[in-house]
Amino acid sequence: MEIRPQPIAPGIDLVKLVDEGFVAFNGGRLREICWLLREVLRNPRTTVGWSLAGALTPLGYGISMFAPLMRAGFIDYVVSTGANLYHDMHYSLQYSFEVEYPGKDDLLLRQEERIRIYDVTFDAEALLQTDQYSYRLMKNPEFKGRMGTAELHYKMGRYVLETERRHGLPHHGLMATAHELGVPLYTPAPSDGTIGLNLGALRLLDPDLEIDVVHDLNEFTAMAYDARQAGAESAVVILGGGVPKNYMLQPGPQIQEVLKLKYEGHDYFVQITDARQDTGGLSGATPAEAFTWGKVTEKSLNRNIVCYVDTTIALPIITAYLLATCQPRPLKRLYDQRLERLARFTEVYRTEAAKRAEQR
Question: Is 295 in the active site?
Fold first, then answer.
């Protein structure tokens, strides 16, 4: 593609800026991600999952980014750190965050009972009250017994949505919106977050309370397999890395290597990261490397883009671009279908396992 520079005019809109001003290097990769996702979202049958790592909801991105994307039908399911769901609830409870100079004296902040996430600070009281809030709501009868994290967060989301409505908040956050729209929220490491810490406290009082991550794994894998069986394509948008990224990609190895079923992996793969692959720190590696694991399809090698840029820079641009250039898609409400999908997947695996046993 030839570079044809045009002077940037006053008042240029974001779409035109991305299309004409983001030319090469990581600017070019960010433009290509916008273009690729625009094409992906034109197919209403393509399933699109987003993985969230890093401190995104403390910046209000649950309200300003993820909720609008979900309402437009651009996010069908989410894999997230527990921290992003927990900090999202601070806004639901009307606690505020402030931007401070990142070099502020941390001893002073501790004396002031202020918590710091780089240049974002908030009152420690927000943690204490959110702990009490989540602890109280998870003591309700519907949280008894065994469940996966999608069910846990869906049930929590009902209370969070009611709380936001009771407070008259004009906009809803990540967990409340996901509940309302039937978007499943998976957290592969629930104990690595404060919601999980509160569950630990409740477990000491009620031994029957259990978050079943193995059920989660099968439910999540069934969702990927079922979409492929229905002839639909799959796209993943990876923000950061860590456990959410690996979890998002692992249906490929699980279905192919462990369950011995036919499955090719995701069709589209884009990632926003600032990690380097040569140090082994890219959290699941590049799309090309993921292909060797069976995590993505061969054709996805021409449908994958990694942009090495801070998510807090890229995500607002991607969000604004997609909302400006794509028509809303029908909601898939994958949460509502999760048990039906798992039942079909279970039957397929048991049938194939029985056939293999007979052949031995």
Answer: yes
